[in-house]
Task: inverse folding
């Protein structure tokens, strides 16, 4: 089968029906349809460029610099107001419970950080008076860091 034969034959039932309808129509009706298609295809120019989608969404900015500035500020506060209306505010009990949790965590962390600071202050005070203590502490820290590093490398290598 050559390529020319396949192009000439209608490949589907739909194409054969369309060809049969065209053959059954009078020529005056076909010409009228062609005229209607030509009228629809030709449109008059608008005389201006079509604005882009982004410009259509944002709308045209009108007015001078001061009017645009205050319009932008007003638009910002309207957006803030609409977002605040969407907020689901906690109840009084939820607020009280969460406040107690925050204050308790803050107090505990302040105590822990204070103890760490006190420990390092004493270590440096003793270390400056006796350099051997200072040196011993840093050797212990270095060995502990090396052990932790090796342990983390070993656990990364295992597939589970």
Result:
């Amino acid at each position: 089968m050559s390529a020319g034969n396949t192009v000439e034959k209608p490949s589907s039932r739909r194409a054969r029906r369309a060809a049969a309808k065209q053959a059954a129509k009078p020529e005056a009706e076909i010409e009228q349809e062609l005229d209607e298609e030509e009228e629809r295809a030709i449109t008059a120019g608008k005389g201006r460029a079509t604005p882009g989608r982004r410009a259509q969404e944002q709308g045209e900015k009108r007015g001078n610099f001061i009017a645009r500035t205050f319009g932008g500020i007003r638009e910002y506060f309207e957006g803030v107001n609409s977002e605040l209306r969407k907020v689901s505010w906690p109840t009084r009990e939820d607020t009280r419970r969460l406040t107690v949790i925050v204050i308790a965590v803050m107090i505990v962390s302040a105590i822990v950080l204070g103890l760490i600071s006190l420990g390092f202050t004493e270590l440096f005070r003793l270390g400056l008076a006796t350099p051997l203590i200072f040196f011993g502490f840093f050797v212990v820290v270095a060995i502990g860091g090396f052990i932790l590093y090796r342990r983390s490398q070993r656990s990364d290598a295992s597939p589970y």
Summary: The chain has a mean pLDDT of 79. The helical segments are 3-8, 13-24, 27-41, 53-58, 65-86, 92-129, 131-157.
